[in-house]
# Entry
Amino acid sequence: MKTIPIFFAVDNNYFPYMAVTLKSLLENASPKYFYKFHVLSSSDLNSEWKKSVEKCLTPYSSIEYFDIRPAMEKIKQDLHVRDYYSLDTYNRFFIDTLFPQYNKVIYLDADIVVTGDISKLYRKNISNYLVGCVPEQVMQKYRVFGEYVEKVLGCKLKTYFNAGMLLMNTKMFRAYNVQKRFINLLKQYKFRVTQDEDYLNVICQNKTRILDFGWNKMPFDDKKFKCRKVNLIHYNLNWKPWRYKHVIFEEEFWKYAKMTDFYEMIKKGREDYTYKQKMDDTTQFENLKKLAQSEIDNPNNYKNVLDMKTSFLKKGTQLFLNLPGIKSLYRFINSNGYKIAYVYRKRQRKTRRTR
# Structure
């Protein structure tokens, strides 16, 4: 039986919702495969909750926990987090090197419900890509975030992807040194808006296979995000049914939440979620828009600095090529005379070898 490795990155704040994700996934997964779950965390997870999650498992699945703190120790001080994010949001950058036995894995955020057969996602061919992914609908829905993608990151808006669901070609991750590239980029520039997602998009640019919206459907009532079938629902940002009522696709979340030991806890969490907390959510989202705008207006943002370096390099190269001796040599190299001389020398070497 073929194994499909699936990774989560959580702390205790999101552990109950991860149980719902896992339960929904297994309820709809093909029994022809074995599903091995790996939970990465930079904190101590509740041991009683671990027992509750084990009740969600099937005969064709298993779960294990991995303390990622030692791997993150050297760069922890450089990692930027905001609002409700924890350091665990960066865990996906370490999967390829910490688990070299896998060449292909699935990574999922914990605010997801899987309504389709996850093995169909895993079987998609990404042999020539770093990741299989779905475009980030939030960036396309809000103008300021779209401008941020193009004017700060230098990425194409239509292919900027959400990092909450990733089909990862970890073999190619290792060959391309993604983790090393991430650490180097982290030291050069701090992306403050969508953090790990920004780093992934910059590093993986032009090396992604874009999948149907149905494999990472967000709760928007927007016709431009049509999909053939909803296979995976992602309750990102403030569209979370465990905090708010009347969220699109909320019935799917509660359907699977009821199948876990965490149902009553999650239900009470929504009942106890205060007006002030909801206002704080709204404020955080508005502040995020302002942050994106400030990055757009920053003359020293990532794209502007990169453009300046590229321009400086081009000018330096042109100045070098315009030097009298270099200019003549450059013209000769690009001339037919150089090509004739090259062919002549090649034939001479071949003649000497045959003597």
Notes: The mean pLDDT is 87. The radius of gyration is 25 Å. The CA atoms of residues 193 and 291 lie 7 Å apart.
